[in-house]
Fold:
Amino acid sequence: MSEAVPDTERRGLIGALPVPLRPYASLIRLDRPIGTWLLFWPCAWSVALAGRGLDWRLIGLFALGAFAMRSAGCVYNDLVDRDLDRRVERTRLRPLASGRVSPAAAWALLVALSLLGLGVLLHLSRPAQLIALASLALVAAYPFMKRITWWPQAWLGLVFSWGALVGWPAATGSFDPAAAWLWAGTVYWVIGYDTIYAIQDIEDDALVGVRSSARRLGERVRAGVAVCYAAAIAGWAAALWQVFPDPLALAALAPAALHLAWQASRIDPADGALALRLFRSNRFAGLLVFLAFLTVGLSAATANA
Structure:
């Protein structure tokens, strides 16, 4: 194999695939499902808080949609950033940056994934469809944000939290202020975890002129993430209060709050490997928040029955 092929394509899930398919699997980060989880959780939270419980049809649709759109987002991001990626150690062997996948082939894959996402969208209610489509402009602009603002993580927050706005009308057919509070809290959650993720690239980003919240915060990154996570808990608590105005309902968020506090306390701006582990732990944080919303959503539905 060529030296331009990363180790991740020689072993594991991608390494088990036929050789011609491996660059495309790498392009959509098939071996790194964390992005799919992070896109999926806000959708599932909204469905759970709306009182639909474990609606497996909707949860399955959102899981498939999260996979399709996260994969499409990776392809689009790599198309836009392929010149920058060649100059960053962590990304220089990505399929587009290294030339193992042509831009034309990547665009074809992007269209195919977008059609899969459209298929999911057509199975949702009309209000949910319209809200989902409203996110496309935000999605298209995201890869350019790191070039013009120190806070591209805030833009990603708007994008990756959008499922909170879609899940509620998909479950109920209408919108509710609780979904808006849920979305607001999730925006801050995304800013927090993506700031942690950006710690890995601080040095390379400085060399190529890419901006990030991690670079902007510098030694204050731990405090910055803590503030974002506190704002996330506040937004989620407001969403819970809209659904079930009882102090006991807010206690359901305690496990998630403790986990996020643990994350923030462990941050070391000089340790990229630790930052990656903390970032990935948000898959578990998402589960804790889901369990909180599922419990309160079902309790509210029972109380109102």
The mean pLDDT is 93. DSSP finds 17 helices and no strands in the chain. Residues 18-304 form a domain with the Tetracycline Repressor; domain 2 fold (CATH 1.10.357.140). The radius of gyration is 19 Å.
